[in-house]
Amino acid sequence: MLDAVFFYTFALMTLTGAVLTITRKSAVHSAIWLIVSLLGVAGLYLLQQAEFLFAVQIVLYIGGIMVLFLFVIMLVNLDEAAKQRQFNNQRWIALGCAVIVGAEILYVLAKGTASLSLPAPAAAPAAGGNTEQIAVSLFRDYLLPFEAASLLLLAAIVGSVIMAKRRA
Amino acid sequence: MSLLDLVIFLPLIGFLALLLVPRGAPGMSRTAALGISLVIFLVSLGLLGPYWFAQPTGYTFSTDIPWISTPTIRYHVGLDGLSLWLILLTTLLTPICIVISWKYIQNRVKEYFAFLLLLEFGLIGVFVALDLFLFYVFWEITLVPMYFLIGIWGHDRRIYAAVKFFLYTMAGSVLMLAAMIYLYNRSGSFDFTIIQSMIQTGRLSLSWEEQILLFLAFFIAFAIKVPLFPLHTWLPDAHVEAPTAGSVMLASVMLKMGCYGLIRFCLPLFPNAARSCSGWINALAITGIIYGALVAMVQPNMKKLVAYSSVSHLGFVVLGIFSFTQQGMDGAVYQMLNHGISTGGLFIMVGYLYERRHSLEIKSFGGVATPAPNLSTVFLITTLASIGLPLLNNFIGEFLVLQGAATVNFSWTVFAAIGVILSAVYMLWMYQRVIYGRATEDLAHHMPDLSGREWAAMLPLLVLMVWMGSFSQSFLPPISAQTAKILEQSKVGVDFRVSVKNPAPVLSSAVENKETGSAAR
Amino acid sequence: MPLANFIPTADDYLRYLPEIILTVVGVVIMFLEAVGGERRKPALGWLAGAGLLAAIWGSVVALGVGGTGFQNMVIVDGFATFFRILVLVIGLLTIVSSTQYLDREKANAGEFHALLLFSIAGQCVMASANELIMVFIGLEISSIASYILAGYLRDDRRNNESALKYFLLGSFATAFLLYGVAWVYGLTGSTNLAEVRRVLMTPESAPNLVLMGTAAALMFVGFAFKVSAAPFQVWAPDVYQGAPAPVSAFMSTGPKAAAFAVFLRVFITAFGPIATRWEPFVWGSAIATMIVGNFAALTQTNIKRLLAYSSIAHAGYVLVAVTAHSEIGTAAAMFYLAAYAFMQIGAFAVVTWFSRQGEKFVNVDDLAGLGERQPMVAAMLTIFLLSLIGVPLTGGFFGKFYIFRAALDSNLVWLTVIGLLNSAVAAYYYLRLIVVMYMKEPGAATENIGPVSAGLRVAILGSALATLVLGIFPSLVLDFAGRSAALVK
Is residue A15 assigned to a domain? Predict the structure, then answer.
């Protein structure tokens, strides 16, 4: 019972935050709502007994990345952008799409999970807890993707430098 | 490495060698091209060897070596009575084409002659390939040089004509490629001889729908090339816009690729389908004969007139093939050669006239006979040969075709014979308007008689016109031996859905034909 | 858990050797660029080339070890090696054809080469991926580097437009792919290709097939975008037209080949058991791609845009081979992508040379008279165009031939007929280029045209030679493709 209350609270936080992030005109407001949304996600992690992810979410996303975002927003002049129209005229099409997707979700919910014949959920972590599981996943099973992702980041950094650099 | 391989690859070597000639030396390119093509012709005469005294059955000079391992594609070539004369025709006409282009082609000389040799390579390959895939490769190779010959050195609307020519042929041949792949997937081989024997022995049995569709895929590709009415519309454009040598190669040899394909592949591979479609095909052939003749009659342009006359003449070839009689087939093959000689000659003559007047319109000529008597005489002989005057070559071919058609369906002969009469009308009328009458001052001034070089190009053709018209037995035996074999092969399941009203004459005529054929010899 | 469990074996590193070499060389190039100064700039191109050659050697070494490595993350088989070497060769040709271009446009060579190497490393990851996570990461490395390369000349508006479009649409498509991966994981409990296949093959554990089909469709969207297949091809013409010519050549061959490699591997290995579910939409997309590409190309006047549409059409032909989902289909796709790479890069190399500074001359009509003024280059371009048409004795012809043979073998008769008729339509717009080169009066654009630089000469001659060799002795490549087409399952 208590679980459910927490779940819906966090879920509501996540969704409200996400919606407000994209609808606020002021970039700073958007960033702050994003923090709320990320906090909700962190809460959901905690409910799944993923303490490590919870901590990482708070420290890294909210603590690190969001602060960077705010810096950038304050450094770059966004006044112009705030005056521009945020949405184009396709909202009715978007509404149609949303209704269709909603109907699909409702249909699947009505059918129940049994009809999907999903595989059994992963077993609860053995002794040592979630953190060690992540370590094993990250540094043994998925070591290569983990390392290869650094190449991805490198390419992205080089790219952003090139794009930002003034031409000689 | 047989003599045949040498004949196939010499033009390619010549092509590559010509590319190495420096650009600034057109004279050197001309001489080199002529030398190479003459050497090829002389070498190709050696192919006559086995056919000189005997009639070998099967393929001579055959080479069969693997080319590509998966799927199995082999370089399999061989010569028989069907391809022998076509190859000699090709190797003879190439030097002639080089001679007639000697002065006419003044820009990009090297490329021009190089393309002619590449064309010769493709054409010879088409006539000897026994692997379906190899055949397709050569078939498409001929397309490229001809496209450039028309497009670069042609007349005003050359680009339109070149592209139309390329696209028509391409559209037809892709379906043929699909049919070949289908056959391969069913039989496991691209080798024509293997597939043919599998079909004949029943090891590869195709359903009726398969046979019809495959037959049509091949047939349409060949019919476009022949060209059979109503797929002929590319031909007048290509002929009119091409330079003289291009027109000659196109009319004399390239159109024969289609006819050759029909005889070589369509009949032995899909005999049932071919026979059951023969009624429609002959109707189209006869329509083409009369339609081509009527359209030719009203043309104000000499080249266009000759082009439409080709549509008419080629109708005879198709009629002969799809009469499924010995005479009809012999006549069709013979007619292929005749048409190559006489229409090639006509195009050369028209080319000579063009070089003098820079016009192809009939009305800008008249009275040529006075300033240029030799030219007029040669033109007359060529014209008469094309009409089918007895003792000249076309007569024999048309006669055999008509005779063959008559044994199957007499009304075909009646209608086709109208085409013969019409051909006399339009050819002689053109001759009259161009050669007779009073020459204007201007024309007389610009109409020198034939030069030695021009004589040299026409002389071999004139000799052949007379020779083939009066001593057909020097040419027919290898052809008959082969057509008899193909008739035999295309007889599989004659009883199967053949819509000939009275099937008896078909069978008995084959026997009869052998007798008459030998009697004629 | 003992530490030894966390240390990959030496064999694992060997299996991943090409990617390691490329990454290291890329980083070294960036380092040298910073400390080297102007004098050593040309050396960077040589270094990148040497790195690619070393990576080719590395691929061969990796094949010698073979098998799966890093906990089933990568798989080194003939298929992976084929595509690794293919993208590496594409990289070599791109480098030789871009040296003069970078000079001419006064662009910085260091980052260009580094990014190119990173992009190729990403494509190598894709070629050898045995896991959806690796597919995704490889795809992203390759894409992000290509986004930057597309907009490499920052001051050029067309470059900016090209890069931005590519980036926005590309990210959107990758999201679809990732969403599909999530579905697959949710439905089967694994992201390993072989494991997904095993789950789908076992009747008792098989998930709902409608949902599985949806997952496949989501991933298809991602792949279709990367290979520019209809209806996700809209970006390609704008991007290829706007990007620097050597980059367009690279983007239309390298990332495309790698994307097809993962497309084939994912759909045939993992989704092989549900082929009946995905076959219809791949079939439809193949037809739509061929028709859209060919018919849109008919009216183009810009050569780069024309080649972009033609590249869409060629993706359609390869999709035909994917639809066949048989071993000979896979082999045909492999051969086709190799043959296509050479003719496309060759054609773009000619465009690179011809367009001159600022890419001023990129209209079809500008080529008028090239046949007379630069007969050698015109002849080479003619070879590439004939190969794109599919005329025998060129690589393009055999590519088409093998593809349609595979399609007929899988009883896709209508697909074959439509495809072949399409290739006849395609002949028209390629012929137009030849017509302009040889049959039109020489125009102003071909006057005073400079000689071809050494690098471009190597690229053009090398591509032409490869196109002809693949057309005359296709067995050289096809036999290897045929042996490696049996994907490890």
Answer: yes
